[in-house]
Amino acid sequence: MATSSHFPSSCPSMTIIFSFFVLFLFLDNAAGETRHYTFNIDYQNVTRLCHTRTILSVNRQFPGPRLVAREGDRVIVKVVNHVANNVSIHWHGIRQLTSGWADGPSYVTQCPIQTNQSYVYNFTITGQRGTLLWHAHISWLRATIYGPIIILPRRNESYPFEKPHKEVTILFGEWFNTDPEAIISQALQTGAGPNVSDAYTINGLPGLLYNCSSKDTYKLKVKPGKTYLLRLINAALNDELFFSIANHTMTVVEGDAIYTKPFETDKLLITPGQTTNVLLKTKPEFPNASFLMAAGPYFTGRGTFDNSTTVGILEYEHPPYHESSKNLTLLKPILPPINATGVVANFTGKFRSLANSKFPANVPKNVDKKFFFTVGLGTSPCPKNTTCQGPNNSSKFAASVNNVSFTLPSVAILQAYYNGQSNGVYTTDFPTQPLIPFNYTGTAPNNTNVINGTRTVVLPFNTSVELVLQGTSILGAESHPLHLHGYNFFIVGQGFGNFDPNKDPAKFNLVDPMERNTFGVPAGGWVAIRFFADNPGVWFMHCHLDVHTAWGLRMAWIVLDGPGPNQKLQPPPSDLPQC
Q1: Fewer Cβ close by (within 10 Å): the C or N end of the chain?
Q2: With bands split at pLDDT 50, 70 and 90, how would you rate the model's confidence at 324?
Q3: Which residues of 348-364 are buried (b: 16+ CB within 10 A; e: fewer)?
């Protein structure tokens, strides 16, 4: 006897429709959503340390709004400038594959957005998930124009670590009682080191160790026995920071939106431009105490710096039977000494990529082009018949890469490159090694003057690059957090003293090196990085201490188009700002 089907006769077409629906969901998930944001650059009155100041901010929020997306999403941000300053926004750490017009550094990939003008930043987040940041990228405007970028994994994908009870974003910043634009303008005019900040901040708040700030203290309320994901972001202008939470350890799981092999620490270092995700496991029972979270500076240079500490409070939710938490002990963490270079090297050396099948470390094993760049301070002679306030009264402070102090042009380099009009804008003769070798970390040479120019390096598409960044001791050995736009790079080696090309490469880690977009060249030492030049466009590389950037510690790479359709720089958008 034939068995009858329990399905209606339309079953095949229903199956096809269902299959299409599943395929559509899959494709939709793969393609991602489009997320729209509007950033209004506006004036805002803010009071900190009993000083009220008019700052520039986004959507009158300080710090600025969160930009949240998923891996694979397209992000469209309309930036409208309502202030007198020219402005541009950089999406720090976003790869910007073929979309260099949206990268944001003024006079590098775009002219800045002028008063009452707008520009739409349009980019897709490809192969990235984690914590990054956005900030202004002209002069010192990022002192107050900054905020977090949170890239969630694709739908139905999880973290490679335990799911946290809650996620919390912690932004470190710097507060100035006076206008930072006036500070850097005066410093560049006199040749002196600029005045330092008046406070560090956690989520815009200085914390109770500062004058007048007991109410301006960030509080993080937690439950016992839970795991929290803290997304730490250093948006400070000029300072690397140590961070610690009293009586708690943290597990580092990500740096610069790259997952790491987890490791525990009770203190960490985070440079401007870096992000670090940590898991915080709270104590199993109510601890009868509150705990300070503290951040303070790491500094080895000769100049002045803001030697203060910002704190927030980690507060446990007390159980119902417990009386008020007003009389709880407040425990303080101990931060490392200010110049604890050994602590920094030990900490940064612990970072390792996951380097597994899902999250591989595609580090270049063979190198097409090798570069050796010195990074450090220097001098510029005073204009004739004037005195300056630099290292002596006849010179100004400067900074350079391979002794070239980079001059920003008056038009955007990317536009000039795209239009084939480099003449008078930039040259392609950036030195691949120091023009005059010297004992980089030993006694400084007698002549410390830099040369000025808008020099770039041209790389054919997909060149495998090895770059050794060598710190110098000119005017003091200090750490320089170098940021490369448009790329992540692998940190294959680091060390102190002068790099030895005969011995040091044998110790390079080509198995699971950490991948980052910003990394500190050690004070009195070197770092070796590798990357594939697989993203066409013009890409800025600079120290993320803005005082050094302003002094010229910056340069640009020009990466040529590749042969494939997805290996070419997209045409410029129609609303690209004009200079």
Answers
A1: N
A2: low
A3: beebbbbbeeeeebebb
Residues 6 or more apart whose CB falls under 8 angstroms from that of 330 comprise 289, 290, 291, 292, 313
Closest CA to 134 of 39, 48, 199: 39
Tell me the C-alpha distance between 579 and 577, whole Å. 7
pLDDT above 70 covers a percentage of the chain that reads 94
Pairing of strands 395-401, 329-331: unpaired
Q: How far is CA 315 from CA 208, 220, 294, 480, in A?
A: 15, 6, 14, 35
**Structure token digits, residue 479:** 């750490």
Q: Positive or negative, the Cα torsion across 566, 571, 577, 579? A: positive
Q: Are the C-beta atoms of 178 and 144 separated by less than 8 Å?
A: no
Instruction: Determine contact, residues 360/382, Cβ cutoff 8 Å.
Output: no
Count helices and strands (H / E) in the chain: 5, 33
Number of residues written out for the chain: 579
Radius of gyration (C-alpha) of the chain in whole angstroms: 25
d(CA 58, CA 40): 5
Q: Where are the beta strands (DSSP E) in 435-485?
A: 451-453, 456-459, 464-471, 480-484
pLDDT for 320: 81
SS3 label, residue 86: coil
Q: Is residue 485 over pLDDT 90?
A: yes
Spatial separation of the C-alpha atoms in residues 52 and 21, rounded to whole Å: 57
- pLDDT at position 8 is 40
Q: Are 248 and 316 in contact (CB under 8 A)?
A: no
Distance (Å, whole) CA 482 – CA 474: 18
Residues 475 and 444: beta-carbon distance below 8 Å: yes
Q: What pLDDT was estimated at residue 30?
A: 59
Taking alpha carbons only, the member of 414, 402, 326, 405 closest to residue 371 is 402
Q: What is the mean pLDDT of the chain?
A: 94
DSSP 87: B
Q: Tell me the C-alpha distance between 82 and 78, whole Å.
A: 13
Which long-range CB contacts under 8 A does 363-367 form with residues at least 24 apart?
A: 363/490, 363/492, 363/510, 363/513, 363/530, 364/464, 364/465, 364/466, 364/490, 364/530, 364/531, 364/532, 365/510, 366/464, 367/464, 367/465, 367/466, 367/530
- Dihedral (CA of 195, 199, 202, 204) sign: negative
Token pair of 174, please?
């710097």
The model's pLDDT over 340-355, given as tens digits with 9 standing for 90+, comes to: 999 999 999 999 999 9
Tokens describing residue 550: 């302003």
Q: pTM of the predicted model, to two decimals?
A: 0.94
Candidates 463, 448, 429, 471; CA nearest to 559 is: 463
The type of residue at 300 is: T
Inter-CA distances, 507 with 318, 372, 499, 511, 521, Å: 51, 17, 12, 11, 17
Q: What is the DSSP letter of 567?
A: G
Please give the Cα distance from 465 to 515 (Å, whole number).
Answer: 14
